[in-house]
Amino acid sequence: MSVLLTVEDLKVRFPTRTGVVEAVRGVSFALGRERLGIVGESGSGKSQTGRAIMGLTPPQAEVTAKTLSFDGIDLLNVPPKRLRDLRGKRIAMILQDPKYSLNPVMSIGRQIVETLRQHEKVSRAEARERTLDMLAAVQIRDPKRVFDLYPHEVSGGMGQRAMIAMMLIAGPELLIADEPTSALDVTVQLEVLSILDKLVSERGMGLIFVSHDLRLVSSFCDRVLVMYAGRIVEEIAALDLANAKHPYTQGLLNCMPVIGADRHPLPVLDRKPEWAL
Question: pTM higher than 0.85 for the full model?
Answer without folding.
Answer: yes
